[in-house]
Amino acid sequence: MSIRKIVTLPDPVLRTRARKIKVFDSKVQRLADDMLETMRAAPGVGLAAPQLGRSQRLILVEYAEADDDPEAPPVPPKLFVVANPEIVRHSTETVSANEGCLSIPGYLGEVERFQSITLRGYNLHGKPLRVKATGWLARIFQHEIDHLDGVLFIDRATQVWKVEDQEAVQVSPTQDESRKRQAVSS
Ligand code: NI
User: Fold this and answer.
1) Which residues have a Cβ under 8 Å from the Cβ of 177 and sit 6 or more positions away?
2) How far is the CA of 153 from the centre of ligand 1 (A)?
3) Tally of structural domains, the chain
4) What confidence tens digit (pLDDT) does each residue in 153-181 have?
């Protein structure tokens, strides 16, 4: 595993529709390993292969869903590695929140996303998988799947702004009142 450089705008790979993964071999496994290490080092809650300059349909999401009860013990983050992900179902309800992207450092935007989704895809052994996600987890998946189609959060945002403090972009979402001002980067 190695930490690799995250590609940033205006690199054209971020605007390219990524190719489907057809062979689940050790190269794909190595790419996923590098993505995981790079995402954790950033740190981020999600990463798509084009962000490492590889135009392939592979995403990682690692996120701990916060409990509604503030006194509940912290939930360990759950890691999802999905090849060829596709949203097969989504809620009609949408929700607006702030997002950042590791490929667009220093910017945040308010983006409307589906409140819940069901996605289909494959694990690294080529076995089909299905994930149901709501809230922030659903948002991160939608953000990463967009990356595979060359779509960035700034394309969907109702407003985009520059953040002076880089740290603000790296904050993870929490359930508290300041949540509206916080954002995920992925
Ligand atoms: Ni991103």
Assistant:
1) none
2) 7
3) 1
4) 999 999 999 997 655 554 444 434 344 44
